[in-house]
Amino acid sequence: MLGEYPIQGRRATEIAADVERAVGSGELRPGQALPPLRDLAAHLGVNPNTVAAAYRLLRDRGVIETAGRRGSRIRPRPAVTSRDEIRVEVPPGTRDLSAGNPDPALLPPLAPATAAAAASLDRDPVLYGCPSADPVLHDLAHASFRADGAPAGRTAVLSGSLDAIERIFAVHLRPGDTVAVEDPGWSSLLDLVPALGLRAAPVAVDDEGPRPQQVARALAAGARALVVTNRAQNPTGAALSADRARDLRAVLAAHPGVLLIEDDHGHGIVDLPYRPLAAAPGQDPVPAHWAVIRSAAKAYGPDLRLAVALGDGATIDRVLGRQRLGAGWVSHLLQRTVAELWRTEAAPAQRIAAAYRERRDALLTALAAHGVTAHGTSGLNVWLPVRDEAAAVSGLLQRGWATTPGARFRLESPPGIRITVSTLTAREVPALAADITAVLGHRPAATTRPV
Asked: What's the pTM?
């Protein structure tokens, strides 16, 4: 049934590890069926319960899925295969609009901030027993959250947004629990959910954020957590409007036991206001457990693996407790560097947000002039609905533009491609819009690009 690959192992953990390794190496492909329990047990000379336990482990780890009498098969996107593999190789000389990175020219210089941080820690070294959060970063984060109307809460400093989300999941959820996620949504989160043995419930997104009826449906069906991107949603650029935030809070009020995670990674690069979901400004939080996460990656650079999470006391206490038993804390040299950048780059942040908005708007306006509808309310990307992702990506690649297939970001939503506009210049926009129009078949367009 699995071709030439022989599953091996005597214990459930050994069988599961063998299948997982084969999926990771590509010897077992997504969609391939696994042998029936009794057939594999007879082949290996073990009890069927052992194979059943192995399959259960694989299912909890997001490697396989089961479909009743149709048996078990490798997931279309198993957790051991990152969605980052759904990408296009960028040939030399091709304009790369696929990576999702901020514009390096708009990132602040690290040397002055790092030097100032190092000098301050030379004067007052961080030793065992010191607080896990840098006091300067702590105060800046709290002031920022307070100014934006976020609920009062405690903070934790973690190694980026995904690390924060993973740790929050770990202290509240168990394998088999369902998480409502945006669709299309952040590919790393869509990988993380099955890797932790959780189940994803896709929720459709429009320009104002997750659609309330679909969120309500997912929560009513038993989802125990909801993850929402407040602004600069990846890949669509959606940003919560005031009305959408109010409607979503009403949905959450009917499900106060649901864990809410707000991903506000657009902080510092977006000129749209933060719309809190956990509570309306000045009011108590709706859910019992919640967190708002702000990352340094987009504003100051992806290599600054740091995020600040604000949340209810129980959630933050549990996260910090688990952190103490593992990494201990995030380096204070890194924390103080981010604090220096946060403190000194407040004014330039408005200029940076305006630059990204101008680049998005230029492409959206040019596409609209050709009769092409795309989306990009905020952030670094434009989402372009297409009929055939492979044809669109291939056609643009032939014209010298590398974009990202939407399959990397989708569960059940219609096809599309992501175009990163962070480095797009005004001179490139007309040619890109014309090439997109030609590839989508709207009408003939020039295929030349500016030199």
From this structure: 0.84
